[in-house]
Amino acid sequence: MRPTEQLKQSVAGDWQAATTHAFCRELSDGTLPLDKMRWYLQQDYQFVDGFVRLLASAIAHAPSLADSVPAAQFLAIITGPENTYFLRSLDALGVDPTDDLAPVTHEFQNLMAEAAASGRYENMLAVLIVAEWIYLDWATPVNPPAADLPFWFAEWITLHAGDGFEAVVAYLRDQLDQVWPGLSPEAQAEVTRLFTRAVALERAFFDSAYAA
Ligand SMILES: Cc1ncc(CN)c(N)n1
Asked: What Pfam families does UniProt report for this protein, alphabetically (predicted)?
């Protein structure tokens, strides 16, 4: 079995809870209360700050230019269309930008910073894979979104589903699957710890948004 599949199966409970979360279900059917979406966007835009730094670190640590190109192209999507999505959604929903981090956002920022500061490519990949694969898993069954969904719901789905995004997740998984056999047992344990923690935080992030 692929190492990344094994990692996913080792956290099946949290994975299932995150990808079938009421937050995601209500977002896709258009019934999610807007205050929950406002909380989510406000906090997630700050998550994206740490995510961009982590992705840039992974680009810097990729073993070759060829290994880095898909990540660099994905970085352009995050800082381009996804950033614009946030700015338009925050504006349309009347959300004030803030520096206030909810506890779960703070914990996620710390995890991403820890993975980046480790200087270890596999640790960076572990957190990046979780962040994108969980979103691919929840968004794919609800893509394409209903035609009458407001853009702040519909585009959050289309940004995380479809051929291009599937290729991003496949690439990230391939990168980790390739380096995994060459890792020491200690390094594999560290990847597993970061992967496990990231999945728990993805679940907690949806829990916090839904509780808002
Ligand atoms: C918390 C979280 N995790 C993942 C993603 C996927 N881009 C996100 N926007 N926010």
From this structure: TENA_THI-4
